[in-house]
């Protein structure tokens, strides 16, 4: 067993918003009992573990009778977080991998440490993929509402068969979902063109489920399952291979379709050895790639006349790729966007060097920040912002700027500038609102200390108020009067609007009988909210404000203390938007 590969664990919380530093990670060989340990750094990363593997050629032979990879276990312990054990980490010869793991904060006051365990299990190529009737290619169930193909920011996966109501749902970043599926269903040692062809099929399969609303249109609260009899094999807690991660970051917005069609192809596939099907043979892609076929030629070999197209939109990502790579010497608004986003990400990932001037000029300092970001997030470290790096920066920027880390319930956005005078010792909703503003602002201005949102104007709120007043040229008396309210409001709304955190009220009431994009947006938001608030019924976004939408609006209003009239006016609109952004 002279072959080997490296494993790095990357630990974070809040959907990659905050790295977990100082965690103790122990990796063990379950066969020998040998182990090695490492602590996570300021970026949440461990040192690489060098691990033995079987010979590489075993994973390239479809008739090899054994398991062509070696498995290891990891135990992750961090103060303030639930301890995690991951069993069955798969390591292939020469293919380095990353294990991204979201750590769960330990509940306050809990005496004993409840541990969480993931068991990865075998790669899907070593199992018999159950075949269930899933509908012919192009089948669009009645009730399908999407009129364009987009890449979802997140996808909700049901960890079981569709009718297993006891199985839980997990909502994960779409690109990460594809990385997980690819790492679970194929081998990273395969020729790159074979890997790409398989990933295109996996992306297209998932997008077909999203586009047709296959499960939501049938009353389910998820987008796809991880049951191989119906869908693709997503495995919580598994390691991701770095070459697969790199490829997915490059191509996750590209899917397969028939010429002239709108919908992504229902790209059925199977391993091609123990199971055969009408679609792509996963092992067959290996021999085709070895014979010089490129990914599109491989796909056409199995699916006939198809094309690869790129979705125009990645929903909820802050900005769209400018169309060509940014590198040293580039100039313009897109460079300014990257500089601003990297500077904000640096607050959470201090290993990224600061870019002193956001000037739209891609110089050596911008390149250094890009290189550091690429190394932290397992991208090809070339200092160039191509599509993959752009999308990853946007993803992490969205994660770190979301308000999900705010402690305490959010406030509805005010419909007018708040007023009154508040000082240390005061309490109430306007104190909470001021704390809410200050907490968001502290995410963007290092000089303003973050505070808890508790509605009590204590010393911490006074200090943060003085920080804010000094930063914006006001009298630093720690009292929130008219001048401070006005500046708080202006700074907060500037952040919210430029970061995409606020969708402005359109100025027209939405009620039963209304139609259009604004109705669809509210339906999409309510549908997402319903997954976290069971009292709000799930609805199908179709742009038509019917009885089901009215019931969802009334339920939302009742849940959040608004007048339950079933009408979306400014207050209900702002509250729906705020709650959605906090999920």
Question: What can you tell me about this protein's structure?
Answer:
The protein has 583 residues and is of the alpha/beta class. Helix content is 33%, strand content 13%. The protein has 14 helices and 17 strands. It has helices spanning 174-185, 192-211, 242-251, 282-290, 295-303, 333-348, 364-376, 387-401, 429-442, 459-471, 482-498, 517-532, 547-559, 570-582, and strands spanning 4-13, 18-19, 24-28, 35-39, 49-52, 70-77, 84-91, 97-102, 116-119, 154-158, 169-173, 224-225, 240-241, 254-257, 269-270, 280-281, 307-310. Strands 1, 2, 5, 8 and 13 form a 5-stranded mixed beta sheet that branches. Strands 4-3-6-7-9 form a 5-stranded mixed beta sheet, with no helix packed on it. A 3-stranded mixed beta sheet has the order 11-10-12. Helix 2 crosses helix 3 and helix 3 packs across helix 8. It is globular and about 75 Å long. The two termini are 46 Å apart.
